[in-house]
Design brief:
The protein is an all-alpha fold and 278 residues long. It contains ten helices and no strands.
Length: 278
């Protein structure tokens, strides 16, 4: 009988490194949402959008850090395809909208942050892809499913993933058409940036359904719960953001969807921790 496949040192290292990078980005975007002209790679005119992206980075920090700490590959891999997809898409988005980036500014800090963004997203997907191939080829097999998910949970999480994948794809490929569907005002660049996040989260959600084991979902569920909490705080921080109309149905649909992610993430985190301690 073959041994259980473990996460390679290279896989754990790249996840630790990626978690550090997204933590820095998340702290900047979440807490300096009104100052992206100075502290970010491009100017985001609507602070709620910057805070939304910041919440994604902070949730990704939790996802990648928790995944890096797992020794068994099956309990770690939920983070990898989502992060690889997001970083690859973000690099493409950067190239498409390069004219919007702070490449011609005089502020050395802003210029440094801009080039750091470009270099990180040019290199990280390539390295992650190589390490993932090495990880997949490593010896060992998946452990058996120990604590399967209830069907109702898989159904709800699958629906959430489908919504994020469909909307994310629309914002990425057809931003001008899809922007009116969003709860507040976007630009083509910010629409595509949000689309990349939705696609990454959608992949993580779909993979969680496929893994069908509470012990394999812990990083994703912690990230989902944190993501939803941070987004709810964002609505309290910026209740009057440009284009955010509390009389519009799309605003309440957005709020309801975030609340559903919070409930699923919290329940999933509880169940994953309970089975981990059993």
């Amino acid at each position: 009988m073959s041994s259980v496949k473990v996460s390679t040192k290279a896989q754990q290292t790249i996840l630790y490194l990626a978690s550090a990078l997204v933590l820095i980005m998340g702290l900047i975007l979440y807490f300096l949402s009104d100052n992206t002209a100075t502290y970010f790679a491009w100017t985001i005119g609507v602070p709620l959008t910057a805070a939304f992206l910041g919440a994604g980075y902070l949730a990704s920090f939790i996802l990648e850090l928790m995944a890096a700490r797992e020794q068994i590959w099956a309990r770690s891999r939920v983070a990898v395809p989502a992060v690889l997809l997001f970083t690859s898409l973000t690099f493409i988005i950067t190239l498409v909208h390069l004219d919007k980036f702070h490449l011609g500014v005089s502020n050395p800090l802003t210029l440094m942050l801009t080039w750091a963004w470009i270099i990180v997203y040019a290199i990280v997907p390539f390295i992650m892809g190589i390490i993932l191939i090495m990880q997949v080829r490593a010896q060992g097999s998946n452990p058996p499913i120990i604590a399967a998910l209830p069907n109702w949970f898989r159904l709800i999480l699958g629906l959430q993933a489908a919504i994020m994948l469909i909307l994310g794809l629309a914002l990425l490929l057809f931003p001008e058409t899809a922007m009116p569907l969003w709860a507040w005002e976007l630009t083509p660049l910010t629409a595509r940036a949000i689309g990349a996040w939705l696609l990454g989260m959608g992949v993580a959600g779909a993979q969680s359904v496929s893994e069908n084991d509470w012990l394999r979902l812990r990083p994703a569920m912690l990230a989902f719960m944190s993501y939803a909490l941070l987004q709810l705080i964002n609505l309290l921080r910026y209740p009057n953001a440009s284009g955010l109309d509390w009389s519009a149905l799309k605003t309440w649909l957005y709020l309801a969807f975030i609340l559903s992610i919070l409930v699923i993430g919290a329940f999933g985190t509880w169940q994953a921790q309970k089975h981990r301690e059993a």
